[in-house]
Amino acid sequence: MNKSIILLSGGLDSVVSLALCKEKYNIELALTFNYGQKSFESEYIASKKISEYFSLTHKVIQLDWLKEISNSSLTAKGNIPSLTIEELNNKLLTKETAKSVWVPNRNALFINIAASFADALNYSHIILGANKEEGQTFKDNSKNFILAVNESLKNSTNNNVQVISPLIDSTKEDIVKYGIDFNIPFNMIYSCYKNNKRHCGECESCIRLKRALQLNNREDIISELF
What domain range is 196 assigned to? Predict the structure, then answer.
């Protein structure tokens, strides 16, 4: 039987991807990455709780050097950009905010580290929470990126490890709906770029989550998270 690895940040996309793929792809191992992001402590708590909830082995990968070479506002000094829900429709603005939070080669690095585990331990798939909405501004969340990575993995792994992105054609509104349908533990997720006990409600990740929850008429979850 196949067995798989989930790249688990503890945020909405990775948790919904986990719920969608847990049984079909027999997910056993969750990898969480510490690359010096400001939100790591909160991400770690969320991903650990979620791994226990889904009965997964949880491993944290330390990537201190990535912070040292990155100028991303997620890791470096300086403010993380804030947005309003209305501003999410401004493509020029969201391209600029994407540049601010960009971490060099992050998703490709995460996937290749996971592929090393998969190749060594005979895992067949890596589950990634890439999605259509963020793929419009983050090219390492796009369908083209997934296709290119999978082509590369054919030549860099002996067991032809492949990346699966179940949300690649989904918006955040869709993803929240899947989460509701699969009864994910929304009270455990952490999607904020900052390190808080509750979501800040101002960074782009928070605003996308809040809008998606509003579109699904889930003010109760908004009150719980923000």
Answer: 4-225
